[in-house]
Amino acid sequence: MKNLLLIPLLLWGFSCSSPQKGKEETLPNVLLIYTDDVGFGDIQAYGGLIPTPNIDALAKDGLMFTNAYATAATCTPSRYSLLTGEYAWRGKGRGVAPGDAVALIPPGVETLPSVFQRAGYQTGVIGKWHLGLGEGDGPDWNGEISPGPLEIGFDYAFILPSTGDRVPTVFVENHHVLHLDPEDPITVNYQEKVGDWPTGKENPDLLTTMFSHGHDNTIVNGISRIGFMTGGREALWRDEDIADELISKSHAFIERAKDQPFFLYLATHDIHVPRIAHERFQGITDYGPRGDVLVQLDHTVGEMVSKLKALGLFENTIIIFTSDNGPVLDDGYVDQAKEKIGLHQPAGPLRGGKYSAFEAGTRVPLIMQWPKKIKSGNSEAMISQVDFLASFANFLQLDFNKEQAVDTENHWKALIGDTSEGRKGLVQEAIQGVLTYINSDGYKYIPAHQGPAIVPWGTEIETGFLLEDQLYYLPGDMAEQNNLAKSRPEILGQLKMELKAIVANEQ
Ligand code: NG6
Ligand code: CA
Q1: Across all residues in the chain, what is the average pLDDT?
Q2: CA distance 178 to 169
Q3: 0.85 cut: is pTM over it?
Q4: Fewer Cβ close by (within 10 Å): the C or N end of the chain?
Q5: Cβ contact 192:243 at 8 Å
Q6: Is the CATH code 3.30.1120.10 the one for domain 425-503?
Q7: 217 lines ligand 1 (CB under 6 A)
Q8: How far apart are CA 379 and CA 358, in angstroms?
Q9: What is the best residue among 159, 210, 212, 226 to mutate for testing ligand 1's pocket, by most ligand atoms within 8 Å of CB?
Q10: Residue 130 CB–ligand 1 contact under 6 Å
């Protein structure tokens, strides 16, 4: 590889016996595999029962974290924080975005990909976006779709605009809908029906996958979605092919970028609903479609590793594997996820799940693999995905806009296994904007909140909401069973103060 950018070994963050000034090394590539709704216990290396050999291989050779967190228990805010270094709850309108939302990260804002760009990396995003596109009246599906990823630091984008269960069910490549026939323009509406395409509500007889809650608007490929659309027939994706499309676009990106270091943010659709695996994976597990798309996800990881190996890039590529929020079984479609779960525990020993203030909402698998530098092992360091920005900026010796990226912290040494010391405090965001806080001793505070005990729309997940304060000691009670709020008022008081200071940005 003829990497053009070189940095002095002396300044790298990992230990090395006798650093020599002036000695230079090639910068590593970075492949961030950001999965969707994969729980803390879903991967075999983390105790799961469904075979995930390729992901397990990353865990075996790399560093496996057991205290790593997405910033939120849903997708949009987690992705927002991952890319901007700022907790999403600092601004309004950063909850789960509809498919016609405007760009939530405006051009000019500090971002993780822009840090890589400034370091000379080729940057790409391939997969689920879900951070809004366009401005004003929303994305112009039939024209130039901007601003979007290209305006915030990505050189290349091949994205699902929001999620697989939201219209429009088309790919956007850079600024345009892929394969759009101008004679058949796309109309999208999230308030009312547009065009005459059938909906799940009116024509359930046309469905191949039945909805269980929500998801009863326009039917595409026999699956009704959230939102209404019409037009763009040539551009519609086939759900069974999404994973393969993302693999092939990722391979092509790496081929193009291989002579320069690259940062590829591969945001898989798997294992979000609708869980429609390619035919060759359908029925491959005993766990129904949720198990099948998990195996498909593992296949994606295997295909990425094979490509890197074939190009001789594997040794000097940092592969990061993680998830945007915790697991869910019934997330709006009748796909037997619950009926076929057997003994598999998607959240592992944690309580709650996606949407939840309990640990399973945000504590996720995190694996860091870099054959050249990171030693195999486990880490208990408390890390948030919001920290990638400052950590990579530190590694790349670049400054970043700390006025904007206010929450990101440099934990490079923890990420590469040089220390098991992580964050001093970490904020988690559940649905309804509920913020919880964990301190460096592992105490967790869930504020009193008047909200339902169970996620109200049919997923059967515990929200973690209670009318009184909760305090848990995670190192001894990771399943959050023993509420210490009354017996340890001084610790509770301390945590409340710390959270308040962070929210006020006074820390
Ligand atoms: C919810 C959807 C759910 C999923 C989620 C976002 C309903 C009833 N439920 O509103 O299916 O799309 O939003 O998931 O519509 S996320 O992983 O992208 O945050
Ligand atoms: Ca998600």
Answers
A1: 95
A2: 11
A3: yes
A4: C
A5: no
A6: yes
A7: no
A8: 21
A9: 226
A10: yes
